[in-house]
């Protein structure tokens, strides 16, 4: 419904959403949450089959977006590990490999993935949710933060932001559930009794992936970050955007995360 505009860029692919639901068969002792929880079972296999993904972690769960044209490869890759369903008319209908076999193309062997640089600003972030019925009470403030506060200059070069601190605000509304990521200073502008977070109230630090806009054709970017964090049992929220990828990790673990990712960089050279 959005009118064409010279100010709006649209990727040429259409994407489908995969929602991974646990069936209670997780191995004992599995503590990590977020993208690292599905790193070995979903993220790594898709990367190995040269499937590009966009990752969206929310307060409630994690979503993986895959290009519509890659769906046959995705189903063939994951069918051995997962029961796969598609939504039709509000109902979940089982999907088998036979349903998409006519469109299945054997994936090309993936090229060696590019090891993208990572940067970690000093900004501390909160991962929050809000009850939908209280949204009107903060709507004006949300609009101000989303569209008016901290806006970069129009003539600023892409990626020119000082990464000692970073402006990042994510708002998602998915099936009525609201998820918000904001920096700790911005959180202070909102009524504290309307924002819900974990009982520990933990703060998060960010790792931004990519020294320049990443594009959508490369695969394995999420896996490069998620796999070493999963091996170390470190929770992470992961948010892919049009230009860069962002991983949020618990503040107390940021030093270990940076060390792990630096080792990844060095071993890949």
From TrEMBL:
Domain Cytosolic arginine sensor for mTORC1 subunit 1/2 ACT-like intervals: 116-199
Gene3D superfamilies per record: VC0802-like (3.30.2130.10)
Keywords: Cytoplasm, Phosphoprotein, Ubl conjugation
Biological process according to GO: negative regulation of TORC1 signaling
GO CC annotations, alphabetized: cytosol
CASTOR ACT domain sequence ranges: 11-78, 201-262
GO MF: arginine binding; identical protein binding
Protein name per its UniProtKB record: Cytosolic arginine sensor for mTORC1 subunit 1
